[in-house]
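Summary: Need help interpreting a holo structure output

Steps to reproduce:
1. Submit the protein chain below together with the SMILES for zinc ion.
2. Request a joint structure prediction with the ligand placed.
3. Inspect the structure token block that comes back.

Expected: a single structure record containing both the chain and the bound molecule.
Actual: see attached output.

Input attached:
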Amino acid sequence: MNEIYIHDSLSNQKKKFEPIDSNNIRMYACGPTVYNYAHIGNARMAIVFDTFARLLRSKYPNVTYVSNITDIDDKIIEAANELNVPINELTSKYTDIYNQDMSNLNVLPPDIQPKATEYVEDMIKFIEKLVQNDKAYEKDGHVFFHVPSYPGYGKLSNRDAEQQLAGSRVQVSNIKKNQQDFVLWKPSSNCQPGWDSPWGLGRPGWHTECCVMSEVNLKIPFDIHGGGQDLLFPHHENEIAQSCASINSDNPEEYAKYWMHNGFVTINGEKMSKSLNNIILLNELLKEHDGETIRLALLSSQYRKSLDWNKNLLKQAEVLLKRAYDFLDNYDGDDSKGDLIGNIPEHLSNDLDTPKAITSINELLKNKSSYDDASIKKSLIYAGNILGIFCKKPSEWSKQNNIDEKEANEIEKLIHKRNVLKKAKDFEGADAIRDLLHSKGIELIDSQEGTTWKLKS
Ligand SMILES: [Zn+2]
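--- attached output ---
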């Protein structure tokens, strides 16, 4: 059994995964705040940690994967007020839509999907403990975590105090002892959702939720804490501070041993944002593309790197899926005598190197005659179980997807020819190929890793 290696954000090192208890692997990943449709950035996070959970399950007998739903938050309150609907109506609607979208992407439901509103009693007890430990204080119905009381603050994000303030966009407030202090509990007015607490009617701050939901469901320390890179600061830094302070420890590993963060999804090199009007909603994308295609496209970059979304990714994913399903359709032989080939388990175990695993699958399918069919099938099924693809019956897939593989092959052939001409310094010939493709609406993208293509937008 090859070992799993993880790039741990806390030590900023790639480390061999050594479970706290190999009979019970425990992982937590921060889930969505439910007040709108999920976008492809939300989908990437869910797919990355689902894929990692599948990898863990392929090696360990017992894996508990927890990913929460944040169903209390100021953005939710605002959205519900705007729409004039009760908060729980809004959150249960978008929780259902999120879960349905994820299921369309072959994301398995987490073993436990806690909802923040169901843990408020535990959060109150947790905050009381922090106050007792002198790590938090009450002021005007608010409870704040006192950052200077936790000396390890900043270890995860590697930021000094000034950067911490800039990053957390802390509002200057005269009720805090220190500007870095963050809110654990805040007062609610009568028209805001609230729970009775020792500090009056109020609601929990976001950072406290995950500390409590992870501890109640997994016990601390647990093995892996994950989430999107945007959560690293302040959310995860604040989680570590609170959870360690609650047990009077300065060692972040006493909360979670390894930290994994997935990179952003960008659109043509830019961050997705409302102001740029470039947010791609999953719900819309699923109307035009098969969930498996979207999933494979989102796995085409290694999870830590940012992934620049473009139509070419979907096209490439479709071509691979078609090749694989065609193969599986034509070969229904026994794969029990086959071998795992193409180093796919090694690539996936190496900090979830999905692009290398996908390249291997492509190689096996392109050079079918060099391998025996049983081994190709065995390797495809192994990769599919972890990557969450090849889940359909081949006939079902071809019925839903009608893509022109011939055209895709033709483009790849021309790119190869252009590379040969460029090597021979026949730049005129190479440019002629580029222009020919351009006239057909195909744009070539040259980079150090080689040439890819996309349909011109
Ligand atoms: Zn969280």
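--- end attachment ---

Reviewer comment: The two ends are 45 Å apart (CA to CA). The first helix runs from residue 40 to 59.
Status: needs-info
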